[in-house]
Amino acid sequence: MRCDLFCSVVDNFGDIGICWRLARQLQSEHQWQVTLWVDDLVSFQKICHSIKPNLASQLQNEVLVRHWTVVLPELTESDRPDLVIEALACTIPPSYLQWMASFTDKPLWLNLEYLSAEDWVHGCHALPSPHPTLPLQKYFFFPGFTEQTGGLLRERGLVDSLVKSRNSTELQQQFWQKLGLLDAMNYQQKISLFAYSQAQIRPWLEQLANAAQTTLLLVPQGQLATDLTQLFSELQTGRFDHNSLSIRILDFMPQPMYDELLACCDINFVRGEDSVIRAHWAGKAFIWQIYRQEEQAHLIKLQAFLDKYLQHASQEQKACIEQLHMAWNLEQDISTEFATFKEFSEQIQLHNKKWQEYLIQQQDLASNLVRFAENKLIMSRNFS
Ligand SMILES: Cc1cn([C@H]2C[C@H](O)[C@@H](COP(=O)(O)OP(=O)(O)O[C@H]3O[C@@H](C)[C@H](O)[C@@H](O)[C@H]3O)O2)c(=O)[nH]c1=O
């Protein structure tokens, strides 16, 4: 099977993060021949350091990465893919659509949608939509948390390997060494903090600094790290130590390392669409800052997720997790909510384990997509 996957980087790293994981998985687990078209190789390089932004085409992890520029290179019949994926609301160029439509044996066209836990997704997943003028139709493919959706990205063996990292002091030690954080194991609590802006973050940081427990707070480079440097000028050096709190600014690391970071921390603040799912597989307590949308539409999506995730949680757990999520997403001071969250940390850990078990019973997104595409192609080829 040959697949062309189109990815446009709107902002941040979620678009390329998701597409890069999917491309690698389709290649390594399903032996597909994948071409990943990306319009921003500089962002891509942040999460895959071997990317060379000046190249029009390059092979990375057996995936052909092509720079998607305004004018696409000339394509010939021998380039014809079996499947074309238009990821995360990007728009395939009209010239490419015309080229697709020119074949008798037309490629299958999928629109990989954004993640949502809302129930309307069940009715829209896998629906076809005919192109208004060309003899083509595309199918909507929705990731999600239930069997009625396309599922979640999860590589084979990932959860087992993260459990190993979680349970082995030696592997953790090696990991922290790779990051250059030789004293990480000495801290009683390690928190990864990947988030958008947080206007009221200071009181929470003071709470951590004044706590009995020592905390190592790991913040990836980006807007939040810049904001924290405004609060604590010492952070210009990438380090800040005050009483029980140590903050370290980290360079962006390759995706597999980021996955391991989440497994080695005790609490993970995650954001967007991809890191939140990684936090699920890491199996630690997590707090999600959802990507903001106009007119607070994201809060409806957040509540839909919390309703699913906390469906079987006790009333107290539900209240404490919901309150922390709401305060964090509304950029309020989270000191009180975080203290309660910590009180319940053992129960939250157990709850997350059950939630993870429920999700793992479902097929992963790449496998669902492969099955869907193969069935559709077999049907269309039988009819033509
Ligand atoms: C911090 C870090 C992240 N990453 C990866 C993990 C993820 O694949 C990616 C971050 O993506 P997200 O977690 O989704 O957060 P994000 O905020 O960067 O991405 C967002 O982008 C918007 C355009 C989308 O519309 C949002 O829905 C969302 O996906 O970066 C690394 O590989 N290394 C790192 O060091």
TrEMBL record:
Pfam families with a match to the protein in the record: EarP
Reaction catalyzed: dTDP-beta-L-rhamnose + L-arginyl-[protein] = N(omega)-(alpha-L-rhamnosyl)-L-arginyl-[protein] + dTDP + H(+)
Keywords noted in UniProt: Glycosyltransferase, Transferase
InterPro entries membership: EarP (IPR016633)
Domain of life of the organism encoding this protein: Bacteria
NCBIfam families in the record: efp_Arg_rhamno (TIGR03837)
Family of this protein: Belongs to the glycosyltransferase 104 family.
Free-text function comment from the UniProt entry: Protein-arginine rhamnosyltransferase that catalyzes the transfer of a single rhamnose to elongation factor P (EF-P) on 'Lys-32', a modification required for EF-P-dependent rescue of polyproline stalled ribosomes.
Protein name: Protein-arginine rhamnosyltransferase
